[in-house]
Amino acid sequence: MNAIIGMNELAIRDYGRPETMEYLRDIRQAGATLLSIINDILDFSKIESGHIQITAARYDTASLLNDALAIIRIRLGDKPIELLADIDPSIPAFMTGDEIRVRQILLNILSNAVKYTNEGFIKFTARCDIIGDEAVDLIFSVEDSGIGIRREDIGRLFGDFSRVDLGRNKNIQGSGLGLSITRLICRAMGGDVTVTSEYGQGSVFTATIRQKCADYVPMGGIEGKISYRAEVGAIRFTAPDFRVLIADDNAANLKVAAGLLAPYKMKVDTCLSGEESVALVKENNYDLVFMDHMMPGMDGIEATKAIRALGGRFDELQIVALTANAISGMKEMFLENGFNDFLSKPIEIPKLDELIERRVPLERRHKAKAITKGVADAEFIGIEGLDTAKGMAMTGGNCANYRSVLELYCRDAESRMGFLELAHAERDLKNFTTQVHALKSASASIGATAVSQEAASLEDAGRRGDMDAIREHAEEFRENLAALIARILSVIRPEVSGDVQTIGEEVITRLASALSAEDVGAADKIMAELSLAPLDSASSRVISEISDLLLISEFEEALGRLKEFK
Hints:
Number of helices: 20
Strand content: 15-25%
Helix content: 40-55%
CATH architecture of the largest domain: 2-Layer Sandwich
Structural class: alpha/beta
């Protein structure tokens, strides 16, 4: 907290100087460290009090291991360390257990090795022992060439808030709870964690957990494989008869969520209020509902309670909370109020994929066809205040989709401008807070980090009833938001002269062929080309309509619209 407060003070004093960005980066790092410590403490307290929940669901062993290793490769950064993996290919391909907790164990022991190793190697080993007809002991070992542990300190490693050899490790960040939490989780899963070490030479941590085997088919070697979650659009199954409703009061957020679900080819409906979501749930047989938490009028919690009150099949309907306030303890709050799960906004593709993996039954899945990646790295004109690369990744990795989401964002933000006036905040603080909350998540989704952070500060002030802070910053936020909208519109709706064009016959033929074949990659590339062209109003309108239809995989309808235009 001292680091956060001190660096923040330096940033305020020296605003405008080149050093300011460095101070802000330090604030972000200190904040991330603090959040990690708080989450560790909350996690530890839950486990110690017996409130740990170990769920059981089928998961892909190779994907889990790949994910953990991919994250650790990133955390290694520029350290001169070789990451080695020795994974037994006979490990069963599918397990039944708590995938999230298993990943937590892996990341904790791997991250521990990264912290205490400055050069040399880290070796990850995975093997299994078959126990009876169903049970399997998974054994994970992490060996490193790090600083090692004194013999007399080994017994203290798994103590609460324990840090050993503080003289050498004074620059190591963390709560000192990671290994203690890891041991508690392993023991809750019928296993344990052990360690051997030679001071100055390195350590070996071994975690054992018991899981049920869902499929004894060996997973095979994973060397060189890429986790399906690592690639935009690279999904393993589709669910064309799985029906989903997304409720969010922000149209841009709806488009983002629908676009990220598009590769699964689900039937997706959207609505802009809690009241409408309840009405649609009554009329249609949905399998899954994504429900925004904060909405004007009936919010997500009230809507969920109204749905559960209907009884019968509505008791079993899967409802997932969408929230921009994903802090420790929120999941428990949602579960207590009738939700089955929660997903933080802006939506991250790996977390969405994990949720879909948990929520779609095996019998409802169809094997996905291999698809060409969309225009994930297509060039996009720079817009001040937008991280366009991040925005495209957050909206499905596609240039055309991103432009479409930006269009919606601008329309939605313009419609909220009146609610952002200081006079409105003074009349109706609750509604003002709801409006800036919506803009916070939508801005983050398109890559407008600075505007999102301003909205977050105003939302926090609104929750605290701090009108002084709102009076100081509300008008500046409105001006910055209006300027961002103007910059976006100058790119996506450029003023063009007589060089406008219609869609050419050759392009129409190529697009029709891609739509007929349901070739997502080819269609995305053509749509990206067209989104950059100075089209006339009729052509722009049809391309926008087809883009909307592609987001929800309505290929036949998109093809029909194209033929009508032709």
